[in-house]
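User: Fold this; tokens only.

Assistant: Input:
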Amino acid sequence: MTTEIPMDKTSDTTKVSGVEATPIIPLPQAVARGLAVGGSAVALIGTFLAWTWTEEFPGNLTVTGYPGGLQVLTLFGSLLTLLFALAGYGIRGLGWLTPGGKNSPVLLAALGVFATTGYAIGAITQELGGLVNLEPGAWVSGIGALVAVIGALGLAVDQPYDASDPTPNLWGRIRHSLTAPDPGRAKELPNWVEILIIAAGFGVGLYVFTYGIATEYSELFIGFLIVAAFGFTAVTRAGLLKRLSALTAKHRNVTLTAAFAAAICFPFTQSNDQFALIGANILIFATVALGLNVVVGLAGLLDLGYVAFLGVGAYAAALVSGSPSSTIGVQFPFWAAVLTGAVASLIFGVVIGAPTLRLRGDYLAIVTLGFGEIFRITMNNLNGNSGPDVTNGSNGIPQIPDLEIFGFNLGVPHNVLGHELTRSANYYLLMLLFTAIVVMVFRRSAESRIGRAWVAIREDETAATAMGINGFRLKLLAFALGASLAGLAGTVQALVSYSVTPEQYQFAGSVPPNSAFLLAAVILGGMGTISGPLIGAALLYLIPAKLQFMAEYQLLLFGIALMLLMRFRPEGLVADRRKQLEFHETGQLDVPEDKPLPEGATGVAKAGA
């Protein structure tokens, strides 16, 4: 006889019934939605009016009828808020926008518009010297955004309160109003339609990334970050990202193809070589972060000196590049230089890992930190005075010649499909090829028996060893694989930067790459995933590159960001199912309750009875 446990129909886990939640501002629902729709429409109209009278503020916000600069961000945010609010009326053709939460996306999008418009008004006031420099358009958008927020706060909350806290305080009510239920199961679509949706999703992602990387001044980039953060969260609460994630999980090969197709299109959208260079450096550091993800994310080994393996690959490639400053005086073909960098890093990984990987936790972290510093100091000392003349000491190896593959010189611009690819764009495409190789290696490794053994060691090395897993050998394999992937990226970094110096490879510094930056990228993006470190490295490189006036406070901001991440999303921006279950309450008991069998049930009183 079986005993059934009542389950929540919307989830596959046991949940306690909640208490009905009330809106933050008690308003009739028709009035609240009308305010949200009207306020966002007014904010949108205000972007077509002048916000200031002078062109001294960046972006030329003086033109009527043609939004520019921060006005464009308010325009997009207002349009997104308007669509989410209109979807609540049940308008045919808009229901697909909110398969999850119905009202929390409206509130989040409205807050994003209000924050962006408020920031723009504050920036204009501060830079031009007072509110008198504002034109009516700024006030129209600001008031419209405020009205939209008030209306959104009056909308019904998507989820009931938890029975354990039926009467939260005001801050708890506000936080709860930003949550949303998971979307239901989507109806089956033809495969070609699902593939088109995936392609459209990556197309939107490419447009957003291209817009962000092409922002020309810090005020616009800060506004972009505000809109992107609130917009991303709103789309997540609406359930659109989970629907897209379900499609990408179903069509994995199509997803990878679409992702790399979008990445290939990036240099063709850039006319400024500086932005293409930022893209190339993002790919380099994202690839190194993905290699570190093998060590930290899969095997659970805390490596604080990982940037040294990037340096080993870069120095090895520079020494055989044919540079006039190279002490070896040889020039290998590119494929041989790549293998030299990867093999040199692999050898260093084995040599360093063999005596140290018997340590665990903080002790291993301290040893790897020491290795990173030893590498930098050694490269400084190999200058002919303190040691053999190999690396030219602090001067490094400059004047690394550009690469030429099959007669194609990557150092000069080329016209492809009517678009001029600059030097940085050429190396971006080369690095994209290496990124594809690293992604393939990571994916195959993670899904193999060795990858599952790494995960077992990460979760509980003692239990894994008891089950017959050779922990030391597999940890050494992870260390060596991660080191070789970093060396692979180091060979391209040496070519992109023209030179390698010891000061480029520190534990922490204001300019990436450094070990702290790489570790933060893995943690921020999501350990053990493919897209997580790529997104984390892109954010952590792009933000300092665009906000150079904050370089002195980079480590402080990294620390604050990590603390906020640990508090609100400890699994990272992109998390696998295991991490989500580990860090969040599911309502399911870890150990089943010890309940007596119902009357008439047949049980076993003793073993063997």
